[in-house]
Design a protein that fits this description.
Helix content: 25-40%
Shape: elongated
Strand content: 15-25%
Distance between the termini: 22 Å
Number of strands: 31
Strand order of the largest sheet: 5-6-7-8-17-12-11-10
Length: 572
Amino acid sequence: MNFDLNIVPFSRRESFLAISLLPKADNREQGLYLRTVRGGDDKFGEAFRIELIDADGAALPFEAEASPERILLHAATQSAQGQAVAEICLPDGRTARFRAEGCGIRLTFRTSAYDYAYEAASGCWEVNSFTHECRFMLSSLAGGMRTEVPWDKIKSSRITAEFLPDQRTGVAEFAAEEFRTVWEPGRVWEPFADAVHRVREEFAGWLEGSLPGPERLKAGRELAAYITWSCLVPAEGCLTRPAMYMSKNWMTNIWSWDHCFNAMALVRHDPKLAWDQFMIFFDRQDESGLIPDFVNDKYELWNCNKPPIHGWTLAWMMRRTDYIKDAQLREVYGPLSKWTKWWFRYRDGDGDGIPQYNHGNDSGWDNSTAFNNGIPVESPDLAAFLILQAEILAEIAGLLGYAEESAEWRQLAAATQEKMLAHFWKGDRFIACRSGTHEPSEGDTLLLFVPILLGRRLPDRVRETLLAGLRDENRFLTANGWATESVNSPFYTPDGYWRGPIWAPSTMLLVEGAAAAGDRELAREVARRFCDMLNRSGMAENFDAISGEGLRDRAFTWTSSVFLILANEYLT
């Protein structure tokens, strides 16, 4: 498979390195860049600009061809040996290997702060990047190396390294190794072709293990598998386990509901990695029970949080693997209990027994029209998640022999459902409202249909009304799936984030909800429309509900994971 470096970064499993074609921006030339995704989404992380050069150092235009195992750069020039070409491979998580034939390669590092470079050994230059909080060792392996590193008081004013082909073979090879503290010389380098072959086999194994789907969705499955494989980063810093970032474009964190969908897609073929994805936020849990909004290798954010879909996720995973045994249940029971109690203790400002979102970000639907009239907001989706979470806690408590706690959780689930229906079901629909005043929100948001996840627990009239709304092709349901705001709403915006575009998590929740409510035909049809759209448009953060065009970050893991799940669960 090949992919577009303008959209999908080139990376590999458990690496902070990535390579992308980037457009021109402030202080950045258009071009191909070796990047690092350390430090979260507040920095884009372009470390080195990569250029092909002729013998005189003039830049050569090139075409890029990317596959999971390597990038091929075809220069628009002929050399004595034929077409000039370069290759790039990431043989491990900290190394980029480069090979050029008939041309050279120039790396340019734009300095700031105290960034500097110096010759650490013959043919080896260390670049100490304060900007990216790491170091790089540039090592010439074949051909010549030419550097330009002028010193300016406290830093190198610029850093340029040119790797030139051997006059006899026409080949230049070098490596760029990322490290944090010390570099050990004397590494034995495998042949470049062997490195490419090994990475190809590694990804092939991941692809083979990924959830199967129908043959017509083969292209989408391969892309989804690549994005999930390549977006893993190692356990380091604040990351207590290997983590699947949302993207290696610019959404370079894990968020505390996104990780659930990635865990679900992994649970059949790599249950240990799936468990790591699910548990990583509970490793960072506050004593109060709160889990952070997002985490990266450097820091975690506590200003917002995400909805408690973790109980629903855990129940879904337990039905699909025998990996989750007594040890895992004991590991998760305490943290999940604290997370559930946190909502009732700290997010019920008016004391009515209905927890609230203090901001749209807390719901995951950041700018949904449920928040049009101000905050805090009480919304039935939150109550539904907490009902499901209390139910799975009751089940786990029973399995662990905590009979009294099991009964308490079941009582909480039943009481919360009773309050949810009395509080939010008005006439023929669910509403969201301001906490305290209970003033209903404006708009027509798909968020209010999330309680369909309760399935047969809902009264027949409520369940059938919700299903009828989800079937209505003049409201939310489009040729590509469910819009997040009714297409007839005055607040609908094609690229309005949660005010119109189709998203993977909302699709996954409501497909599962429709199936739980007894309409598997609707669930299957929406899964088909959604997966067909992704097979055409890629694994974007979200999609124009009418055209199906991918929007925002175009290489997203939870989109990839939901594609794999729905294609497998509903279309095979």
